[in-house]
Amino acid sequence: MAELAFPGHFMVRLEQRSEPFHGGRVRDAAELRDLLKAIGSTAAELEPRRYAAVSDRDGPLRLRNSLKLRLVESQQPGPALAVIEGMLLFAPEHAGLWRAAGLTHAELGNLRPGLAALERSRALAADESGRQASALLQRLRARLQ
């Protein structure tokens, strides 16, 4: 059994033909395509990356990310930060998680830990998110003065 990288849902691929467990449903390619279009855009297509297995580390991170998103959406930054910090224990080199920690710390008024987290994010990111972290760092530093 392997967890799949399907967005917005917890899905597994059974390696051997068997019945789903605990009320799970078997879905065919057409159902998966419709589900993907419902949560994405109507232009979304079912690509192999959508049903590729994720690593043992990424599975728990995806589940925790769902919890984090619900907490953020319900405006609970303290509990969201606790989830993010727990995720960082599994993925300390994940620039996006450090960025989320920095932003959440800043939202809570914890400017120094926010700065430290954004510095870590910038150091890990080699793309556009590193430049975004630099801009955020400047704004937080200005708030400290």
Q: Considering the protein shown, what is the CATH homologous superfamily of the largest domain?
A: Tetratricopeptide repeat domain
Taking the sheet with the most strands, its summary is: 2 strands, antiparallel
| Termini gap | 53 Å
**Helix/strand/pairing class, anyone?**
mainly alpha
In the sheet with the most strands, the strands line up as 1-2
Work out the oligomeric state of the chains in this entry: single chain
Instruction: Give the H and E element order.
Output: EEHHHHHH
Number of strands: 2
As residue ranges, the low-confidence spans are none
Beta content? under 5%
CATH-derived topology of the largest domain = Serine Threonine Protein Phosphatase 5, Tetratricopeptide repeat
The helix content is 55-70%
Mean pLDDT: 82
**Which outline best applies?**
elongated
CATH C-level label of the largest domain: Mainly Alpha
The domain tally reads 2
CA-atom Rg in angstroms: 18 Å
Count of helical stretches: 6
CATH architecture label of the largest domain? Alpha Horseshoe
